[in-house]
């Protein structure tokens, strides 16, 4: 594998549609590349991902969809946290992250901060512009994805996807 990869939770179809619209709108506004909505559980692993497939296949058998609260819209350190939804932690997310951290921490230390990005890039946002933005109160995540994640967003590529509803590899 020539690029590091990341582990994502992806939202269920109805939440994905709503979040994808927000992402498209913000990416157009800030002239940044469009991407799929996701919550990164573990990022930038430099290991052959194929060796991890059995782990992820077994993992999804033990979990169902994960419902998480959105705490608010925030800005942060560009380019990867320029504009995002802060996601609240709960016991289920903590258990999922603990499993992934335990399994992948030998390859890379990862500092988990649950969020769902709305735009990437180097741009300034006036905080008052965020006051009237509508976003969901909760998001249901229904699949685990391994995504090749080079620095160029338009080159991200799906490696593996498994459904948390039924534990099927997609």
Structure description:
- The chain is of the alpha+beta class and 170 residues long.
- It is 24% helix and 31% strand.
- The protein is built from 3 helices and 7 strands, in the order βαβαββαβββ.
- Strands 1, 2, 3, 4, 5, 6 and 7 form a 7-stranded antiparallel sheet that branches.
- β3 and β4 form a beta hairpin.
- The longest helix has 17 residues, at 13-29.
- The model has no long low-confidence stretch (mean pLDDT 91).
Helix content: 10-25%
Which residues sit in consecutive blocks of at least 5 with pLDDT less than 50?
none
Number of helical elements: 3
Total E-strand runs: 7
SSE arrangement:
Layout: E1 5-11, H1 13-29, E2 39-45, H2 53-61, E3 66-75, E4 83-87, H3 91-104, E5 115-119, E6 138-148, E7 157-163
Antiparallel strand pairs: 1-2, 1-6, 3-4, 3-6, 4-5, 6-7
């Amino acid at each position: 594998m020539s690029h590091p990869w990341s582990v994502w939770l992806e939202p269920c179809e109805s939440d994905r549609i709503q979040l994808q619209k927000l992402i498209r709108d913000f990416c157009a506004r800030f002239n940044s590349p469009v991407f799929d909505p996701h919550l990164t559980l573990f990022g930038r692993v430099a290991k052959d991902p194929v060796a991890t497939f059995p782990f992820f296949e077994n993992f999804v058998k033990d979990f169902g969809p994960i419902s998480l609260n959105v705490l608010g819209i925030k800005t942060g350190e560009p380019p990867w946290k320029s504009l995002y939804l802060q996601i609240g932690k709960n016991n289920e997310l903590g258990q999922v992250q603990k499993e992934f951290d335990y399994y992948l921490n030998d390859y890379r230390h990862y500092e988990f901060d649950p969020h769902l990005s709305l735009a990437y890039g180097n741009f300034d946002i006036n905080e008052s512009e965020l006051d009237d933005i509508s976003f969901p109160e909760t998001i249901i995540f229904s699949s685990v994805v391994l995504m090749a994640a080079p620095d160029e967003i338009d080159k991200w590529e799906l490696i593996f996807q498994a459904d948390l509803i039924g534990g099927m590899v997609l």
